Amino acid sequence: MPTIEDLGKQVKIRYPGVYDDLDDIELGQKTKTKFPDAYSDFSDTEAPEEQQGFLTRLQERTQERFEADKARVSATESGEQTGLESFFNQQDREQDFWEILLAKQQ
Fold first, then answer.
1. pLDDT per residue as tens digits for the range 64-102
2. Is residue 41 part of a domain?
3. Same structural domain for residues 64 and 84?
């Protein structure tokens, strides 16, 4: 979707030298204010910045999760146990202990 800044640039191209004293955003805003129906498809510049912020946060979280998964895979490949594997191995040992204890009592 084109932005207000794009509208200002188009006006400057159509009327060279006439609006050189205004920046593109200001000219676009004034043009849209004067002709709102004709330029309703031009959006304010705030929405893309919000979307960019969201995309940046999403990319950061994805990278963090990737690094955590990569560390877990690396630990598994090197023979180290992850926390979950360690927990289940301990549970197996405790279950073996109780089975041996119960077998001795019978």
1. 888 887 777 776 666 665 666 666 666 667 777 677 767
2. no
3. yes
